[in-house]
Design goal:
The complex is a heterodimer of chains A (about 120) and B (about 110). Chain A has about 120 residues and is mainly beta. Chain A is built from no helices and eleven strands. With about 110 residues, chain B is mainly beta. Chain B is about 0% helix and about 60% strand. The chains are: A mainly beta (about 120), B mainly beta (about 110).
């Protein structure tokens, strides 16, 4: 199993550009999520999904969209990049719809810089 | 006040020392998670516990639900243990809240 994969590993954008961060898992996990990690702060939840066709907002959703058309894939779209979105982005998944008491599996991260 | 507080923020120790990282939280939880973030950035789950104690190799995690406190211990520390250790709590509303992490550096 590849686990949770993310592409790209690094990305530089100009303000106003859009892009999609890709996330895929091959463990048949129901729950998938996107976090951002900023210096001096804990991981913060952007969006999450408890199954195909179901998504919801996390703590910091503004400026991001998600969709979940299949169990495997959970892309994160930046609509119009801003310097405040410079961060490291992690995709994570867990087996059940209740992540609180299930092991989280993380992707390797995407380091995004917005100029 | 943050819902999850870790201490210390940074810790440097000599190889072989016994390491303790603390985590305090202020909300009702379903479970507490300890994670390790390698210098290269990858994050792996070490433990998930809701009571008592768990051990895996040289790592031990304990939790005291009444005191809302957990500790992660590393025995016979080694330079390869150098990483950021993250405490996260799974709240009863199914949200996971992460601490800011403890940066551990083990000197050979």
């Amino acid at each position: 199993n590849a686990g949770v994969t993310q592409t790209p590993k690094f990305q530089v954008l100009k303000t106003g550009q859009s892009m999609t961060l890709q996330c895929a898992q091959d463990m048949n996990h129901e729950y998938m999520s996107w976090y951002r990690q900023d210096p001096g702060m804990g991981l913060r939840l952007i969006h999450y999904s408890v199954g195909a066709g179901i998504t919801d907002q996390g703590e910091v959703p503004n400026g991001y969209n998600v969709s979940r058309s299949t169990t495997e894939d959970f892309p994160l779209r930046l609509l119009s990049a801003a310097p405040s979105q410079t961060s490291v982005y992690f995709c994570a998944s867990s087996y059940s719809r209740q992540p609180s008491y299930n092991e989280q599996f993380f992707g390797p991260g995407t380091r995004l810089t917005v100029l | 006040k943050n819902e999850v507080e870790q201490s210390p923020q940074n810790l440097t120790a000599q190889e072989g020392e016994f390491i303790t990282i603390n985590c305090s939280y202020s909300v009702g939880i379903s479970a507490l998670h300890w994670l390790q973030q390698h210098p290269g950035g990858g994050i792996v789950s070490l433990f998930m516990l809701s009571s008592g104690k768990k051990k895996h190799g040289r790592l031990i995690a304990t939790i005291n639900i009444q005191e809302k406190h957990s500790s992660l211990h590393i025995t016979a520390s080694h330079p390869r243990d150098s990483a950021v250790y993250i405490c996260a709590v799974g709240r009863r509303d199914d949200k996971i809240i992460f601490g800011k992490g403890t940066r551990l550096h083990i000197l050979p």
